[in-house]
């Protein structure tokens, strides 16, 4: 664990990244304790330490962010893109909580992406936060300690989604990466569990390691195989089919469901989605189908 004085915290998305639908990212920490074998983040941050072995605090991040937000044009903020914003250290450091308070005060829309039920600590803050949503990442309906050695269990993530949804906080799922060899039964089980917990939309993306050599080496060392011809598309189509059975909208572009999502750049392909456009920020008067009332 190291302390790094926060420089710039509000990072503008590069032009190529805008297709994912966010204008800024905020990463209160550097590194991630989950140690997922397929993670791209160390290829992006160029951190030479073994992935998952280090986590650095960005000291003063909430204060720096608060100043940056005063002059930044409004845009969707992803929290976070290269770390989990709720590592165990957040219990003590509270950097993510401070950043959320700054974003709420400045009235920036925020999409939180995590794998940690620790986000529930900030539920009172999130309930009064206009334009906020919380997403949880999944690769399977079952725990994968071989690839995700320190990720909180699937069951704990589903319980957190259910509590957030019942408390009026919009939730989504990032089913990414979809892994080679995933069975149709696993996809069906995952979709039913997500919908039953109150997830309102899902993003899906197959594993791609061509641009991330460190992750590719880790996956090869674990015996992971690449997708066969047409297998990735088959998995995506299978997920969409299962999701369609329960009415869960599935998108192939992250944040495509948001009314304030950054559109694809000119000349880019349109977002793919099943079903009609889904406004995740709308709150229905009645409970979601498949949820206990």
Task: Describe the fold and architecture.
The chain is an alpha/beta fold. It is 30% helix and 16% strand. The longest helix is centred in the C-terminal third of the chain and has 16 residues, at 231-246.
Features:
293 residues; alpha/beta; TIM Barrel; eight-stranded mixed sheet; three-stranded mixed sheet; 9 helices; 11 strands
Topology:
Blueprint: E1 2-5, E2 10-12, E3 24-26, E4 29-31, H1 41-45, E5 55-59, H2 61-69, E6 77-79, H3 90-93, H4 95-106, E7 110-114, H5 123-127, E8 132-138, H6 154-166, E9 171-178, H7 184-197, E10 202-206, H8 213-221, H9 231-246, E11 250-251
Parallel strand pairs: 1-5, 3-6, 6-7, 7-8, 8-9, 9-10, 10-11
Antiparallel strand pairs: 2-3, 4-5
Helix pairs in contact: 2-4, 6-7, 7-9
Overall form: globular
Major sheet, described briefly? Answer: 8 strands, mixed
Number of DSSP strands?
Answer: 11
Within CATH, the superfamily carries the name Aldolase class I
- Computed over alpha carbons, the radius of gyration is 18 Å
Domain count: the total is 1
Can you give me a brief rundown of this structure?
30% of the residues lie in helices and 16% in strands.
């Amino acid at each position: 664990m190291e302390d790094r004085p926060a420089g710039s915290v509000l990072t503008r998305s590069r032009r190529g990244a805008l297709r994912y639908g966010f204008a800024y990212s905020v990463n209160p920490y550097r590194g991630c304790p989950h140690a997922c074998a397929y993670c791209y983040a160390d290829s992006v941050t160029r951190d030479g330490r073994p992935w998952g072995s280090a986590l650095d605090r960005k000291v003063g991040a909430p204060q720096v962010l608060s100043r940056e937000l005063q002059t930044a044009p409004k845009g969707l903020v992803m929290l976070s893109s290269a770390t989990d914003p709720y590592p165990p250290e957040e219990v003590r450091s509270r950097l993510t909580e401070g950043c959320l308070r700054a974003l709420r005060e400045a009235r920036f829309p925020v999409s939180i992406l995590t794998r940690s039920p620790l986000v529930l600590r900030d539920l009172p803050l999130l309930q009064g936060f206009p334009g906020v949503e919380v997403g949880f990442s999944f690769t399977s309906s079952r725990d994968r300690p071989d690839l995700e050695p320190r990720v909180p269990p699937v069951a704990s993530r589903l319980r957190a989604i259910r509590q957030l949804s019942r408390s009026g906080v919009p939730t989504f799922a990032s089913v990414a990466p979809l892994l080679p060899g995933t069975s149709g039964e696993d996809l069906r089980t995952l979709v039913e569990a997500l919908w039953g917990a109150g997830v309102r939309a899902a993003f899906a993306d197959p594993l791609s390691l061509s641009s991330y050599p460190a992750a590719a080496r880790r996956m090869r060392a674990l015996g992971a195989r690449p997708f066969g011809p047409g297998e990735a598309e088959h998995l995506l189509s299978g997920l969409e089919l299962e999701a369609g059975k329960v009415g869960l909208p599935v998108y192939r572009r992250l944040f495509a469901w948001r009314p304030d999502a950054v559109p694809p750049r000119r000349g880019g392909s349109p977002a793919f989605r099943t079903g009609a456009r889904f406004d995740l920020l709308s709150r229905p008067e009645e409970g979601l189908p498949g949820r206990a009332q």
